[in-house]
Amino acid sequence: MPYDDLRSFLAALESHDQLLHITERVQPEPDLAAAAVAGIRMSDRSPALYFDNIAGFTDARVLMNTVAGWQNLAVAMDLDPGSSARTMFDEWVRRWDAYPVAPERRDNPPWAENTVSGDDINLFELMPLFRLNQFDAGFYLDKGAVVSRDPEDWNNFDTQNVGCYRMQVRHRRHLNILPIPVHDLRRDCPEPSARRRCRPGDPIHRCAAV
Hints:
Blueprint: H1 6-15, E1 19-22, H2 31-42, E2 48-51, E3 62-64, H3 70-76, H4 85-97, H5 123-126, E4 140-148, E5 161-169, E6 175-176, H6 184-188, H7 192-195
Parallel strand pairs: 1-2
Antiparallel strand pairs: 2-3, 4-5, 5-6
């Protein structure tokens, strides 16, 4: 990946005029979702949307539509923003053929600059939660990056999986997730009700994912 963290990716988007910073005060519902949908419908050059003045929150920032347009997807792949869909597809195939690659492990990753653990975790204070869809039953972390491992072979990083899943916030420290049989995550938690134990997973992985 050409970017070490989300900040550097946003800087790249901004350099290509593909990051729209919205400073006007907005309502979390329905303004955020409406803006995201409008951006996609207006053009296939939809920029990423960055909000930092959200009613009801004193220090909240929301980023949406990071790869909603072809230009942003090209930037994410470190290609020219004007690259065609075919060019991006061919590059994707080339990289896929080279997969897997050896992981790079760092002692001080950027995401570790802000960590919360134990009783200090309170999702309602850490994140600007809002309902993205009109009929959502509650607050969801949409497409959060979830890292899972085989519970019977926990220290085997070769079988570690990362996937994007929608998680419902049920409590200050509890999330609900529903992996279906075709999901890799389902492989790592085959009998969650029978085992009756929690599956470790950071509830704010999305903050570190692009």
